[in-house]
Amino acid sequence: MKYRLLIPPALSLRLTTVAVICLVAINLCYRCNAQVRVARGRVAIPLAAKMDELAGRELFFLKKVCKPTESEYQKITEATTDHIDQIQQMYLDLSKTKDPNAWPRPQQLLTEYLQTLADETFKPTIAKAYRQELAARADANITAAASIVTNLIDSQVLLSPTEMETVATRVEQFETTRKATLPVAFFYRHMIPVPSPENMSDILSERQNALWKTQKHPNYNQPWVNYFNSNDFLSTILPPGFKQLPEEKKN
Amino acid sequence: MRILTPFVTTEFRTFTGLLIVLLYAASNAEAQDAARPARVINYSGENFDRLCFRNMVATSARAKADRMLQAKTALTESSIELNNEQRAKLVLAGEIDIQRFFAEFEELKSQWKFGSIPQDVFSAQFPKMRTAALPLMERYQKGLHAEGSLYHKTKMTILTPSDFETTEEFNRKRRLTLYRNLVRATVASLDSRLPLTIQQREAMIKTIVENTEPMEPHDYNEPMLFATLPKLKEVENKLRPIFSDDEWPIVKQFIALAELRKR
């Protein structure tokens, strides 16, 4: 009764409304900022379209090596499509916490999964052949990366054919070579995975090393996911029978 | 009329004042325009060096050429034995090649104006400068002691025919190893778009290496793919049986990327 005399009911109602609106606005701002902070903390994950393309390529390879029946192939394709979604979800979770360079690569995840499917679906001899083919592809990539590193070193210091073989074998063992982002590593000089200076002094003679040091060797080391998502000379080449759907999925 | 006079006077004053301000502003703007200096580009001789020698100044480029001569001689010695006289003659010939090259370079450099250059003069000069420097740039990148150099001619003169043949064979082997490495990387690039079986990969590398001439050492400042793809085009018919009908259009598309280089 006393208060009623002090504040009229209409004013009291208005004050309550204003207070509620203010509280809602403050809450909204806080939540939005929190969301922005989370989004800013995230890093790019492999694009869905690129993942589909990769799956198309790997499925084509499985078909080429294992020659599945139509029903077998359909089963594998469906399972792979589901798995791709799981991989995308995994990357989304990783994007909140981990450094992209520590993430497993999509091709590795996908081929490991396809190997499991091949083991379950095909005769052991076929599954084994598929496993061998995948291993050979991985080895060929490392050999190719080491070859191109060797050629770059030779262009600076001149190696004899025997030295080239030795250098290539040593370079194959380096992390820089094994983790090279292919095929971009083959494009430009600054993308070639040049070994660290310590490793260089191990593989070159003193004279060669002195010559190597006279030249700067820029090395652009972006997270692999940036290269995976970007377009390069080869991006127009899609796997056989693969049709790119326009913005069918979003990350 | 007498009533209107103060009003007209005020209007007149205001109008005159505005006119004066406008005239002053206009003349000032014109003066500013006239006083504004033409845009100038600072392009030094060092910039020109860096253009010619891939971001090295001429002194560093020359030091590198000297070291490459030592490396080249050491490489020759890893295939044959040189006596002191032969080595001295070879090094001398190599040094003359370097001197000749840098004399040509300095002569070319002296033709251009460096320092603060008006932008329009620079815009006209730069393309000409680049075109004129291009042959020297390429020569330097290929090495100053290749075929046609005094070093090479001296080697031919001072070595016995069999020693000379040994060094040539050594160089061919070197070139072939480098070429095989490039082909491997090119095939790996294709593999990234069209996964290959062990058999396909080996057949492809073998077909290209055995049926094409090894290239000159590659310039790593341009995409490697563009350098080797024309070689694939040369053996297109021989590559065809390695691939299925589904795969062949992809391989053709890959080979056609060589066209990008021409743009």
Structural account:
The complex is a heterodimer of chains A (251) and B (263). Chain A is mainly α. Chain A has two domains: 2-41; 48-236, no CATH class. Chain A has helices at 2-6, 9-41, 48-66, 70-97, 106-121, 124-157, 161-173, 175-178, 197-203, 206-213, 224-229. In chain A, helix 5 packs antiparallel against helix 6 (124-157) and helix 6 crosses helix 7 (161-173). Chain A is flat and about 100 Å long. The N and C termini of chain A lie far apart (60 Å). Chain B is flat, with a radius of gyration of 32 Å. The longest helix of chain B has 33 residues, at 161-193. Chain B is mainly alpha-helical. Chain B has helices at residues 4-35, 45-52, 58-77, 84-110, 119-142, 150-158, 161-193, 198-211, 224-234, 236-239, 248-255, 259-262; strands spanning 40-43, 115-118. The interface between A and B is large, with 52 and 53 residues.
- Roughly what fraction of the amino acids of chain B lie in strands? under 5%
Unreliable segments of 5+ consecutive residues of chain A: none
Instruction: List the chains of the largest interface with their residue counts.
Output: A-B, 52 and 53 residues
User: Total number of β-strand segments of chain A?
Assistant: 0
Model regions low in confidence, pLDDT < 50 over at least 5 residues of chain B: none
Helices and strands of chain B: which structural class?
Answer: mainly alpha
Helix content of chain B: over 70%
Can you tell me the number of structural domains of chain B?
Answer: 2
Q: Outline of chain A, from the CA principal axes?
A: flat
Overall pLDDT level of chain A: 85
Global structural class of chain A: mainly alpha
The major β-sheet of chain A equals: none
| Order of helical and strand elements of chain B | HEHHHEHHHHHHHH
